[in-house]
Amino acid sequence: MRFCSIGSGSKGNGTLIQKGDTCILIDDGFTLKEFENRLAQKGLTPLNLGAVLITHEHSDHIKGVGPLARKYRIPVYCSHGTAQHEGLGTIPSLQVIDSHCDFQIGNLTISPVVVPHDAREPTQFVVTDGEFTVGILTDLGSLTPYIVDKYRYCHGLLIETNHDVSMLRRGPYPPKLKVRVEGPLGHLNNEQAAYFLTQIETDQLQYVVATHISGQNNQEDLAIGNICSALKCDADDVIMANQETGFDWCELTFQQQLDNKKTLA
C-alpha cells in the first residue's frame, strides 16, 4: 500500500492511495490539464483511477472533480451535503455515502470521519487494505475524542498544520478571515496538530506528513518543529507536503514499520 500527494495548500489539493490495481484520489482542486500533468509526475494517468473521494465542497478540494469525472467516467464518492454543491455539475456516477458507515472500493476499505469545518457535511477519510492504514486529516478547526479514536492506529498520517497562531494574528488577513481560520470550524494550527499526535498510538506509525500549510501564516520549520516535539523525532522523519508537488510516494511495509520504531516511537 502506498500514498502520495499531487499538491497541498489553499491553491489546490489531491491525495492518491494505491493498493495493487486499486487507486483512489481524494480531492482534486486543480484544472483538468494541471491535474493530468501532476498525476503524470507520479507515474499514473487518470485511467489508473478507480474513484474520486471528496472531503468537502471548498474550491481547493473540488475544483477539478467534475471535469475529471466527466472526461474519464470516474465514480465520485461524497457525503449528501457535499453532493448538493452546484459547482460539481453533472457527475456520470455519483455515489452518495453515509458519513458514518465504511464502504469498499476494490482492495481498500474507507472509513469516513465527520469533522468540524465550515462546509455542508465535511468528512475526512481513514483508508485500510487490511494490513496498513492511512489517515487523512485536514480542513478541521478542532479535535474531538471521536476523531482521535478514528485515527489512533494509522501507519501513515497526513495531518493539517495550517497556521502558526501568532503569525496568523499578526498577518495580512482581514479580521473576519482570521477569526474564521482560527475558529472551531476553521483549520488546525501547529500546536493542535502536535497535541493530536500525543493522543494517538505511534508504535506502528511509519510516515507523518504535515499538510495544508499556509503560505502567509506559517513556516515549514515551525510546523515540523512542533511535530518533532510531540513525537520526539528528528526533522528528517517528518514529510512536508507542498503546494507545487505535494510529496512523493510513501510505501507502507512491515520492514519500514520495524525501522521507524527507532525514530517515531
Tell me what the structure shows:
The mean pLDDT is 96. The two termini are 21 Å apart. Helices cover 30% and strands 25% of the residues. The protein contains 10 helices and 14 strands. It has helices spanning 32-41, 59-62, 65-72, 80-83, 145-150, 165-170, 175-182, 190-199, 220-231, 254-264, and strands at residues 2-7, 14-19, 22-26, 51-53, 76-79, 94-97, 103-105, 108-114, 123-128, 133-137, 156-160, 207-211, 238-240, 247-251. With 265 residues, it is α/β, with parallel strands linked by helices. The strands form 2 sheets. Strands 6-5-4-3-2-1-14 form a 7-stranded mixed sheet. The protein has one domain: Ribonuclease Z/Hydroxyacylglutathione hydrolase-like (Metallo-beta-lactamase, Chain A). Helix 8 runs parallel beside helix 9. The longest helix has 12 residues, at 220-231.
Give the neighbour order of strands across the main sheet: 6-5-4-3-2-1-14
- Low-confidence sequence ranges: none
Average pLDDT works out at: 96
H-E order: EEEHEHHEHEEEEEHEHHHEHEEH
Anisotropy-based shape:
globular
Strand and helix map with partners:
Blueprint: E1 2-7, E2 14-19, E3 22-26, H1 32-41, E4 51-53, H2 59-62, H3 65-72, E5 76-79, H4 80-83, E6 94-97, E7 103-105, E8 108-114, E9 123-128, E10 133-137, H5 145-150, E11 156-160, H6 165-170, H7 175-182, H8 190-199, E12 207-211, H9 220-231, E13 238-240, E14 247-251, H10 254-264
Parallel strand pairs: 3-4, 4-5, 5-6, 10-11, 11-12, 12-13
Antiparallel strand pairs: 1-2, 1-14, 2-3, 7-8, 8-9, 9-10
Helix pairs in contact: 8-9
